[in-house]
Design a protein that fits this description.
Blueprint: E1 25-30, H1 31-34, E2 37-40, E3 61-66, E4 71-77, E5 80-85, E6 94-103, E7 109-119, H2 124-153
Parallel strand pairs: 1-7
Antiparallel strand pairs: 2-5, 3-6, 4-5, 6-7
Length: 156
Amino acid sequence: GFCDTARVTVQPLLDTPEAPVAQDDYFEVPLESLDGFLFANLELNDLDANCVSGYFCTGQAISIVQPPLYGDVLQTYPNIYWLHPGVVLPSTPFDETFRYEICDFDGLCSQAQATIHVVPEPGAIAQLVSGALALVALDGRRRKRRARATARRSGG
């Protein structure tokens, strides 16, 4: 039963911060809603890798590193971003894409891409199809009239 005493010093592990994990996002928007489309909580699925739980699990700040091709992304309020489309847009459907960077409180950053698939306004395809059918019907009537006029002139 002899005992020996020793002094033990416990050193906590150094905090090794990890960069946030930014995730790509996809949205589908009708053309009529494109102007003023809001990205509320765009960074909601972008997590700070070494966050256990709580309020600061998302990144600290977002910056646009590659703007959209046909407009701008503007921050209107913390965590709310607005897509302001350009004056000239391609015909629908088309994709509008921008890349952003999210940084955490340790100053580490990660990038992700947001893609907006712009679709025609509801009913636009039906109008286009009905307009094309009307043109085909008009063209058919014109051809019949021309055939009758040609037959009359030739005596047939």
